[in-house]
Amino acid sequence: MASFLTLLVMLLVSAEAVFLQYVDARFVVEKSSVSVVSPYDLRSKHDAAIANFGVPDYGGSMFGTLRYPQSSSQATGCVPFDGNKPFKSNSSRPTILLLDRGDCYFALKVWNGQQAGAAAVLVADTIEELLITMDSPEESSDAQGYTEKIGIPSALIDRSFGNTLKDALKRSTEEVVLKIDWTESMPHPDQRVEYELWTNSNDECGIRCDEQMNFIKNFKGHAQILEKGGYTLFTPHYITWYCPEAFLETNQCKSQCINRGRYCAPDPEQDFREGYEGKDVVFENLRQLCVHRVANESQRSWVWWDYVTDFHIRCSMKEKKYSKECAEQVIKSLDLPMEKINKCMGDTEADRENEILKAEQDLQVGHGSRGDVTILPTMVINNVQYRGKLESGAILKAICAGFKETTDPPICLSTDIETNECLQNNGGCWQDPEANVTACKDTFRGRVCECPSVNGVQYQGDGYSSCQGVGAGRCWINNGGCWSDSKEGLTFSACIESEKSGCKCPSGFRGDGHKCEDVDECKENLACQCDGCSCQNTWGGFECSCKGDNKIYIKEHNTCIERSNTKVGRLITLSVIAVVLTVGVAGYIFYRYRLRSYMDKEIMAIMSQYMPLDSHQNQNQVVHHQDEPLRSV
Question: DSSP string covering 515-580, please?
C-alpha cells in the first residue's frame, strides 16, 4: 500500500511538472444550450455543462416540459422517487426534470430521474460559480453499476438560472417549456470529421477498461467503414507520465517507466511485487501507436482497429498473455511489416527522447479551444472533447454531428441512430408528387429544404414553397412543372425548351403558364375580320370560311375572293386545257422529227470520213488482170 501511495505522489508531482511547462493548459467544460420557450416573458438562452456520462444528443435538440419535485426532501434526487415513473410524460412532449446539486453523486441523481420517467435531467448549482463538468463516480462508489445504465442526457446549469426556473414553476399558470440544444456543441466545418481516441492498452483497470474494450469491439465496423470511405481521419493517442528526476533510481520508477523515466504508466495491478509492470503497458502503448503509423503509411489505417481488438482477445492480461511475443503473432496475422514497427518503436532502453511518445505527451496538453486530456478513455471529435458514455451508438451519433450539413455518409443515415424527417409531411418542403421530386433532403441533424437536381435538371427556388427546373431537358420532367393538355388529337404545352426557365402559354391559350385556357378568337374578334368571313373557334386555334358558295378564303391575306362556277366558264376552261394539250403534243412530235433528222445527218457526215460513197467508187476503182502486173492508178 505504501508503494502505491508513493506512485500516486510521483504521478501527481510529475503531472504538476508537466502542467508547469504549459501556462495555458486547462480543462474545458463542453456545453450545450438551454432555452426557455414558454412562458413568453421568460424567453432566454443559457449555457449548460454537458455531463461526462449518459448520452447527450449531439447534433440534435429536445423540447420538454420542466418538472421539479414537490417534496423538498426529494429535490436533490438522491433517493428513488415514489410511485411508478412519476415524471413520465402523458403527452407528446417529454419531461425535463430539474434537480438541486448536493448530497450525492451527479450520476445517481440522473439515474433516479431516468428511473422516474424523465427524458433529461438538469441539475441546478447551489453556489455561484463557473460551470463544471459533472463526472461519474469512482468504481467503488458505484456499487450498483448505475452509471453505465444511464441512457438520457443531463447537464449542469448555474444557480441563478435554476432559481429563475423554480420561481417560474411556482407562479406560472402555464407550462414551462425548455429546449435543450446540442446542434452547435459539435463543430461541423467541412465534409470530413477528424477524431481521436485517448486510451490505454491496459485491460486490468476495472469498469473503465471493460467499457473501453467493449466500445472498440462494437465500434470497429463503423470506424472502418468511415475510414475506408475517406469520411473520417482517425488517430489513436495514449497518455503517459514521466518520473521526476529525484525518483529515477527507485525501483518504482524503473518498473513503471522506459527511456530512463521519460515515459511511465501506473502498475496494472497496483502491486509492484507481482504481475505486470507499468513499463509493460508503455511498451504496448508504443507498439499500438506504431501499428497505426505503419498501417497508415500503407493506406490501411483502419487495421489498427483489427489489431487492438485481436490483441485484447488473444493477449489479455487476465489470461497472462499480455506480451511482446503474443503481440507479434497478431501483427503477423494482419500482414503488417514487423521490421517497420520495430524501427518505429526505437530503443526503449536509451537515455533519450522517443519521437512517438514525446509527441503524445505534448498533445495531452490542450491547445486552442481544446482542453487538457485528463480523463481516460476520452474521445476528441473535431478538436472538441466528447462528453457522455463511451458507447458505440452514442459515439457514432456524435461523429455524424461533426459532418457539414448534407455531406453525411450513408452510415449516419442508418435507422438505428437517425429518424428520417422527410417521411412526415415531406418535412414541410416543396415537392412534386407527380414527378416524384422533392426538395426535402434528410441529414443527420435533420431535414434540409434544398431544391434538387434530377436527371441533369437543376431546380431553383427557396426549397420550401417553390422549386422550378431550369436549363435544357427541364420539359422532360413533368413538363417542367408547366401546364400541358391533350384534346382532339392535339397536345399543347406551356414549357418551352428553348427557354431556361418559366412557363408560357402557347399561341391560342391564355394564362400564367401553370394553368392555360383556350382563347375564343371568334368571340373576341381576334380573327376572320374580313368582309364576308365567318369564324369557328377550335381548341387552340380557329377556322375561317367565306359566306356564299362562290367565295374562297385566302388565309395569308385574310380575305374572301369570288370563284367562277358557270357552264360557259367551265367550257372556256376546258377549251383552254384542250388547246394547251394540242400544242403540247404537236410540239413534242415536231421536236422528235427534227431531232431524228439532225441525228441522221450527223451520222452520215461521220461515216463519210471513213467509208467511200458509191459515186466515188466507180471513179477510183482499180482493175486487176491476171497477166498484168499490179499497178496503181
Answer: SEEE--TTTTT-S--STTEEEEEETTEEEEEESSTTEEEEGGGTEEEE---SHHHHHHHHHHHHHH
What is the pLDDT at residue 124? 97
Contact 213, 98 (CB under 8 A): no
**Which one-letter amino acid corresponds to residue 293?**
R
- Topology adopted by domain 519-563: Laminin (2.10.25)
Q: Please, are residues 365 and 372 in contact by the beta-carbon 8 Å criterion?
A: yes
Q: How far is CA 536 from the centre of its chain?
A: 59
In what order do the strands lie in the sheet containing 193-199?
A: 232-238, 193-199, 378-381, 384-385
2-20+187-413 CATH fold: Glutaredoxin (3.40.30)
Higher pLDDT, 213 or 557: 213
| E strand segments, 125-272 | 154-157, 177-181, 193-199, 232-238, 257-258, 263-264
Tell me the whole-structure pTM to 2 decimals: 0.64
Cell of 24: 495555458
Which residues are bridge partners to 470 per DSSP?
Answer: 458
Are the C-beta atoms of residues 482 and 495 closer than 8 Å to each other? yes
State the SS3 of 3-16.
Answer: HHHHHHHHHHHHHH
CATH class of 31-181: alpha beta
What is the model's pLDDT at position 23?
35
End-to-end distance of the chain based on CA atoms, in angstroms?
A: 161
Number of other residues whose CB lies within 10 A of the CB of residue 496: 17
pLDDT in tens, 477-527: 878 888 999 987 888 999 887 777 778 899 899 999 989 999 998 888 888
CA distance 403 to 548: 80
